[in-house]
Design goal:
Layout (H helix, E strand, L loop, with lengths): L1 H19 L4 H10 L1 H4 L2 H5 L4 H18 L4 H12 L3 H10 L27
Helix pairs in contact: 2-7, 5-6, 5-7
Bound molecules: heme C.
């Protein structure tokens, strides 16, 4: 019975930690798929803007996000498709949860280190 309590304890701790750091795993995966090739690793990308800026960009299912990338029609259609899907909200949750002023400093677990700087800065 002891092992059970122990594993329950660890699961609880991990869950709490993940909530505290705004770690939305699905959102992070979406970021990797849709954004990382241009804007760098997930934590690095998210931390370039503030929460309110991300909220603005994701207003109305990413209206601005689409507008920003309109010049690249392939990307535009990719983003358009993605924004129509249910899991799109996870991308927003992840970016807001890890924004510059979110107060969460991402730890390093191989997925999240911020040293891939990307090629295109989001902040002018
Ligand atoms: C194929 C490359 C590419 C991908 C993929 C891409 N972007 Fe961009 N993004 C750009 C370029 C180029 C600009 C600069 C546009 C400009 O300066 O007018 C930009 C600009 C931005 C900006 C700055 C907006 C502003 O105020 O000018 C944000 C925020 C942004 N992208 C977020 C994202 C997010 C979030 C994703 C994934 C959902 C993403 N981008 C995917 C190329 C890309």
């Amino acid at each position: 019975m002891k092992w059970f309590m122990k594993s329950l304890f660890y699961t609880l701790c991990t869950t709490m930690l993940l909530f505290a750091t705004g770690y939305d795993e699905k959102g992070m995966k979406l970021y990797k798929k849709l954004c990382a090739s241009c804007h760098g690793s997930p934590d690095y990308g998210a931390a370039q803007l503030e929460e309110s800026e991300w909220e603005d960009i994701f207003f109305m299912r990413g209206l601005k996000l689409l507008k920003i990338h309109k010049a690249d029609s392939v990307l535009y259609h990719r983003l358009q498709k993605a924004s129509a899907k249910k899991n799109f909200q996870h991308l927003e949750a992840y970016l807001i949860g890890n924004a510059k002023d979110s107060g969460s400093v991402g730890g390093c677990d191989g997925n999240r280190c911020g040293f891939h700087s990307g090629t295109i800065p989001m902040k002018k």
